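[Solved] Which block belongs to which protein?

Original post:
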Amino acid sequence: MGFSVSSTAAQRVAEILAAEPGAKALRVEVLAGGCSGLQYKFGLTSEQAEDDVVVARGGATVLVDPVSLDFLAGAELDFIDNLMGAHFAVKNPNATSACGCGTSFSVD
């Protein structure tokens, strides 16, 4: 199972990339840390590693490194815009628990 990008996330990533000269993709990473043990990191990049997984949709490019992909298999990047604010969120079936802010998670 791969990593996917929702249509709303693709649209927002494409808007951000169009407004940022030099940025070619959004990188999604999973790093150690956060209150639940693992955390998501999002960042713009102009470089693609040879082993990156590339997800392209609707004019947006999202990169995921192979180590992060192990934690993101079957997950989807979404963009949520509601009264609580606008942000990227990962719908991750591998997460067994998450913190209240949604940026930190754990797996068994």
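(Second protein starts here: sequence line, then its structure tokens.)
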Amino acid sequence: MATIRRFEDLEIWQRARELCKKVYSSVMKPPISKEYRLADQMKGSSGSVMDNIAEGFDRGSRLEFVNSLSIARGEAGELKSQLYRCLDNNFISQELFDELLQETDELIRKISSFIDYLNKSAIRGQKFKDRVK
């Protein structure tokens, strides 16, 4: 397996980026675009998923990365709740809701799997690679 050197190479970050683009596109259209606070929250939570993945990766520590991934997973959960609010208030169609919810659930599963992998790994990260135990 190839070594990942940049957060942009992570599948979870790529998926989070695609989800964020879809959320932004969706909230820029009426009627949700008129719900400024909700639209802003959705842009924030979807952006935070990809941002936390990137930040954690670039911290160079496995434990800090796991913590940031946990935050990213929480932000994805927040987005799911916001999607339900949109559906319940008829701001988005059932079809769009289903699509975004499915993508968010899949991203949460992939982040969770990656957290499990990192928790079982002996890799300490670049920050600690030259330190003696």
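Accepted answer:
You had them paired correctly. Confirming on the second one: The chain has one domain: 10-124.
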